[in-house]
Every structure is written in structure tokens, then in C-alpha cells.
């Protein structure tokens, strides 16, 4: 049995969330229907819907404090990582210059907190004349636009490391929903048309990695089911954010992206 269907009064919402979390070992995907409320699990996290869609948590004093600590941790970790990884970053920059024409870094406008645009930084992994600055043409497996060195950088996620600067500047966080390009498409249509509550993910600073990526949702968004699941994971993260959850995502990301990455 893979799904629970039940109905409870709405004042039992928090209690039922606890039940969902404790039952995660027995049920891969759980859905619960409360009066006026629906709860689904997204990679072990409960995602709460009302009649109009998912709901974002209120900014309580405790949550505000946790977000403040998260920002301080972002500054500390990005500075430490830039210092520690400095030799690697320099080596990659030189390798890019020696193996293909064009700049070392690729800049692309992405949607940040509350939809504010910012210049996301990456190591360039494509031939300059073939790159799509808009981001509408997504990278796929075997993409001929990607250089030989770029394939290695993508497979190990080293191409994402310049975003440590974005984190230091405050555009991004270490953990959060991955930043999308404006008018990003999914399954042949605009993402926000496929998933009407898409923009709720803009309620938190975007991250170098997130709950969706830690659970294997990355790469092209041409499959509607997978594309929706990615947004659901993002919003489940926002609803359930804690500093401990961020630590769990960091550990999962290291294992999944740096050692078993696909390069897409």
C-alpha cells in the first residue's frame, strides 16, 4: 500500500504532519485530505495545500531568527569555501581559457528572492557561439554545445562553484530552491502555466542546491510530472525549513551531485 487517504478536522493539521513524518519508512508517497486541506509528502517532507494551492508559512519570530542565522552561515560558508577552493577555482579558470575561446565565467539573469533579477555566475561550459544566454534552450544529455572540459565540470557540479560569490553577495543561499531564468519553460509551456503556484518558490532566497536536487530532481524540465514534482519539493522545503534540514540537504547534495552527478 503506497497511499493513505483520510479526513480530519483542520485543527489536527500539525498532529497529522507528525504522523506523516513518522510513517515515511513505510510509505514512499503519502497523501492526506483534511477538511479544506490536503497534505502530500515530497521526499519525506509534508507539503500542505488548501483549496487555492500550497500555503506558505507565516514569518514567526522563530522563523525570522532561523533565517538570520541561515544568512550568517551563508556568509561564513561561502567565504570559507572561496578561500579553501581558491586553488581549484584558479586551475579551472586557466583550463577553460586554454581549451576554448571566450570568457571564463558565464553570466545569466535569474529570478531571486521575491522575483528580483540577479546575475548568476557559472564557469562557462559551452562554446560561446552556441550558448543561449536566455536559458530557454535547456542543456540535455549529449548536448553538442558543451565543451569536453565542460562535460567534466557539469558532471562534478564544479561549474556551479562561482555561485559562492552570489551567496556572499546575498543573491543566493547555500540551500534553497534553484534559481530559474525568467519565463522558464517546462513540458513545452511556461513553467508558471504548467504549475500555477510556481512563483511561491520565490518566497525564499534561491540556493546552490535544494530539496528537489537532493532528491534527484534536476536537469531538463521537459517531463510535466517531474517538472511539477520539482516545484512541489521546493515549496515543501519552504514550508518545513529548519537549519537542521539545510544540513541534511548539504550532506545529500555532496553525495549525489559530486559523486554521482549526470552532468546535465
Characterization of the model:
- The chain has 264 residues and is of the alpha+beta class.
- The chain has two domains: 10-54, no CATH class; 61-260, no CATH class.
- Helix content is 40%, strand content 16%.
- It is built from nine helices and ten strands.
- The protein has a four-stranded antiparallel beta sheet with strand order 1-2-3-4.
- Strand 2 (37-42) and strand 3 (45-50) form a beta hairpin.
- The longest helix has 24 residues, at 61-84.
- The radius of gyration is 19 Å and the shape is globular.
Secondary-structure blueprint of this entry?
Elements: H1 13-22, E1 31-34, E2 37-42, E3 45-50, E4 53-54, H2 61-84, H3 86-99, E5 105-111, E6 117-123, H4 148-155, H5 163-169, E7 173-175, E8 185-186, E9 189-190, H6 191-194, E10 207-209, H7 211-214, H8 224-240, H9 243-260
Parallel strand pairs: 7-10
Antiparallel strand pairs: 1-2, 2-3, 3-4, 5-6, 8-9
Structurally, the number of domains stands at 2
Average pLDDT = 84
Q: Specify the biggest β-sheet.
A: 4 strands, antiparallel
User: SSE order, as H and E?
Assistant: HEEEEHHEEHHEEEHEHHH
Helix percent reads: 40-55%
Q: Kindly, what is the distance between the CA atoms of the first and last residues, rounded to a whole number of angstroms? A: 34 Å
**C-alpha-based Rg, rounded:** 19 Å
How much strand content do the residues show? 15-25%
Strand order of the largest sheet: 1-2-3-4
**By helix and strand content, what is the structural category?**
alpha+beta
Report the uncertain regions.
1-12, 24-29
Number of strands: 10
Number of helices: 9
What form results from the Cα inertia axes? globular
Amino acid at each position: 500500500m503506497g497511499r493513505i487517504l483520510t479526513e480530519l478536522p483542520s485543527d489536527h493539521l500539525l498532529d497529522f504532519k507528525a504522523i506523516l513524518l513518522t510513517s515515511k519508512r513505510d510509505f514512499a508517497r503519502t497523501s492526506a485530505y483534511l477538511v479544506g486541506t490536503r497534505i502530500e509528502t515530497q521526499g519525506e517532507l509534508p507539503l500542505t495545500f488548501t483549496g487555492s494551492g500550497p500555503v506558505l508559512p507565516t514569518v514567526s519570530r522563530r522563523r525570522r531568527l532561523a533565517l538570520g542565522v541561515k544568512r550568517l552561515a551563508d556568509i561564513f560558508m561561502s567565504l570559507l569555501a572561496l578561500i579553501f577552493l581558491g586553488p581549484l577555482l584558479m586551475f579551472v579558470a586557466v583550463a577553460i581559457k586554454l581549451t576554448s575561446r571566450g570568457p571564463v565565467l558565464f553570466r545569466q539573469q535569474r529570478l531571486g528572492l521575491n522575483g528580483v533579477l540577479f546575475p548568476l555566475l557559472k564557469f562557462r561550459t559551452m562554446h560561446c557561439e552556441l550558448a543561449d544566454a536566455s536559458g530557454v534552450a535547456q542543456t540535455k544529455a549529449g548536448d553538442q554545445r558543451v565543451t569536453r572540459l565542460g562535460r567534466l565540470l557539469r558532471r562534478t557540479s564544479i561549474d556551479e562553484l562561482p555561485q559562492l560569490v552570489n551567496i556572499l553577495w546575498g543573491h543566493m543561499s547555500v540551500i534553497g530552491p534553484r534559481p530559474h531564468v525568467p519565463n522558464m519553460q517546462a513540458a513545452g509551456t511556461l513553467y508558471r502555466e504548467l504549475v500555477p503556484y510556481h512563483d511561491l518558490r520565490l518566497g525564499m532566497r534561491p540556493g546552490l542546491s535544494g530539496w528537489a536536487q537532493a532528491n534527484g530532481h534536476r536537469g531538463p524540465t521537459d517531463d510535466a510530472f517531474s517538472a511539477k514534482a520539482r516545484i512541489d519539493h521546493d515549496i515543501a522545503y519552504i514550508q518545513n525549513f529548519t537549519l537542521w534540514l539545510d544540513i541534511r540537504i548539504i550532506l545529500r547534495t555532496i553525495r549525489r551531485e559530486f559523486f554521482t552527478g549526470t552532468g546535465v
